[in-house]
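Issue: ligand-bound run for nicotinamide-adenine-dinucleotide - logging full I/O for the record.

Environment: standard queue, default settings, no custom constraints.

Inputs:
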Amino acid sequence: MKLPFQMDLTGKVAVVTGAGGVLCSSMAQALAECGAKVALLDLNEESANQNAQKIQAEGGIAKGYQANVLDKDSLKATHEKVLKELGPCDILINGAGGNHPRATTEREYFAAEDLQEDVKTFFDLEQNGVEFVFNLNFIGTLLPTQEFSRDMVGREGCNILNISSMNAYTPLTKIPAYSAAKASVSNFTQWLAVHFAGEGIRVNALAPGFFVTGQNERLLYHEDGSPTERTGKILRATPMKRFGTAEELLGSMLFLLNNDAAGFITGVSLPIDGGFSAYSGV
Ligand code: NAD
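Outputs:
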């Protein structure tokens, strides 16, 4: 993997949740290339292990762990293994997150006629779907932080990086729970940055624009591979006129984790969005 710049994380332990997925596996790989010992946590044990094996094959130190970011006991058990096998956590990346169709409206704008048709409207959103998405993104950031940031207390140069989103600034149509949940992730990033400032633990977030991954593929492409109307809208609202690539998050990640380069930065959510958040649409 070609890193945007070199950084020495030798001896540091990085815990990455959602590391079975597209964006966080690439982050885990970059951290390992910088010398960190990386714990790849995911609900999907197989993908966490496969991504860890790829890193090992390239000479990095990595281990996959099955963990549910919504389950304290699962996180505690994983934490014990990480402590034994890699050591105390210096860097935590809270990457597990995503949306779900049960918390998604079918149309962007409500019209009274929708009530007569077989259309999933705002009124049909299922409470358990909304709770699932809200919890996955917010509680799924809070619980791993409670578990792993304990290791950071009293140690220098420790850092937390959350994953927010564009919809934290202005909600995206159709996905109210995901939008509200990511707004809460940005808000929590600020709260925790303040709370931990005296202990020297910095807390920041990446706010990615649009990247094609497992969690949004169904919204962006039809089954036959043709782009959806939403893809057209996104690209028209992205001044750089393309989706981002996973590698394009790595420079911002390394920068925010770097205690020399970003030692006075805490509580920010950094947009990596091809200009999406800067563009008014006119
Ligand atoms: P992805 O679906 O490829 O990865 C998400 C991973 O999280 C999956 O491997 C999944 O198994 C894991 N996961 C789900 N529930 C979990 C749980 N309860 N416990 C542990 N792991 C769990 O998606 P991605 O796009 O790589 O997403 C990474 C992060 O980036 C997410 O927080 C997502 O919301 C955020 N994000 C993505 C985009 C984008 O355009 N793809 C934009 C903004 C923010």
